[in-house]
Design brief:
The chain has about 300 residues and is mostly beta strands. Helix content is about 0%, strand content about 65%.
């Protein structure tokens, strides 16, 4: 297997500068992340989700970083915080089919800086899957990686905050069951698009393989859409007994998602199953089969 080492910041927008007072060179990297916010004092309050901006400053000569955040919205109020410098730790691990990858981790117990409203911060710079194709409707794509910021921390001694991406691409394993027959495949990929303003979600399935003798005309792209997003105290659920189902086809001689008579999903449920909100479990019934997909949106050790 070809060994590939994915280095810090390789896919991010790097802005290099130099501190003239100390001659330390550094890079600043902006990250736009969604935040899941849970109220640890009011057990009846539903969780909230909002965008926030984080700027990571990496001082290369000292192997440390600090973070400045802004526009984290809780109860319609903007919050922000800064951190002291934090030592970077690295972890190299093997990824099936890609070789060696390297994540960078950091943490700060107690307040992130003097007077900061944030505390007990843990973070990792992780590599996430990026499909590269002609359009979102294309089943022909290559998969590369980008870098994002996995952060968890406490805000105002009250709110637990976890960063995540509502639009994420997942790779994993699908198991389809029909009667006593079961079929497993790693050929299918999934893309989530969650609109928290409309509180609906769309899920794309690419290159689904649900049986060994599957018809060659089986749809290459399937989309479940208009699925309600309902918040509870710990997070949110995405579920529908009858999600709108469309498949890749032609409309007015153009590639489009079209209705397919007699081909509709039922009993759809999507769950985010890991604390960092990168592992996923999807279940639905389609074409006479019970389908279960378990996958992840970031590179993790085998």
């Amino acid at each position: 297997m070809k060994k590939t080492l994915l280095l810090f910041g390789a896919s991010a927008l790097l802005l290099s500068s130099c501190d003239t007072s100390s001659q330390d060179s550094y890079q600043t990297i902006p990250y736009e992340e969604y935040n899941l916010i849970v109220d640890n004092q009011d057990m009846e309050a539903p969780a909230q989700a909002s965008y926030g901006s984080y700027v990571v400053k990496f001082i290369m000569s000292k192997n440390v970083i600090d973070i400045k955040s802004s526009d984290i919205i809780i109860n319609n109020q903007k919050r922000s915080f800064e951190t002291d410098t934090m030592k970077l730790r690295s972890k190299v691990f093997n990824v099936e089919g890609l070789g060696m990858a390297e994540n960078y981790m950091f943490s700060k117990s107690g307040p992130t800086s003097v007077g900061s409203p944030a505390s007990n911060l843990n973070g990792t710079l992780v590599w996430y899957y990026v499909p590269s194709g002609t359009s979102i409707l294309s089943p022909d794509y290559t998969v590369t990686v980008g870098q994002r910021l996995d952060l968890s921390y406490t805000l105002n001694d009250r709110y637990s905050v976890q960063t995540f991406w509502p639009t994420a691409f997942y790779r994993g394993q699908t198991v389809a069951v029909e009667g006593a027959e079961s079929y497993s495949s790693k050929s299918s990929d999934y893309l989530t698009q969650i609109d928290f303003e409309k509180k609906t979600a769309s899920i794309y399935v690419y290159n689904a393989e649900l049986s060994a003798d599957q018809d060659k005309n089986f749809p290459k792209v399937i989309r479940f859409e208009d699925i309600p997003v309902v918040f509870n105290h710990e997070g949110f659920t995405i579920t529908s007994a009858t999600p709108k189902t469309t498949v890749l086809g032609k409309k007015d001689n153009q590639t489009a998602m079209v209705d397919s008579v007699g081909f509709a999903a039922t009993d759809f449920t999507l769950e985010l199953t890991s604390k960092d909100m990168t592992d996923i479990n999807i279940y639905y019934k389609l074409n006479g089969k019970s389908v279960n997909f378990r996958g992840c949106s970031i590179l993790k050790a085998n």
